[in-house]
Amino acid sequence: MALAWIAQQPGAFNLALQALDEAETADEGVATAQAAGIPPQNFLVGDRFGNIAWTIAGHLPNRVGGYDSLLPADWTKEGTGWDGWLAVRDVPLIANPPWQRLWTANQRIIEEPWLAKLGDGGYDLGARARQVRDDLRAHDTFTPAQMLAIQLDDRAVFLQHWKDLLALELNRAPKSELHAKIQKALGDWNGRASIDSVAYRVVRAWRNEVIDTVLDGFSARVREKFPDFTMPKLSQAEHAVWQLLLERPAHLLPPGYADWDALLIACADRAGENLDKQDGGIAQRTWGERNTMRIVHPVSRALPGFVARWLDMPADQLPGDRDMPRVQSPDFGASERFAVAPGDEEHGYFMLAGGQSGHPLSPYYGAGHADWAAGKPTPFLPGPAQHTLEFSPSK
Question: Quick check: 124 and 107 in contact, CB under 8 A?
Answer without folding.
Answer: yes
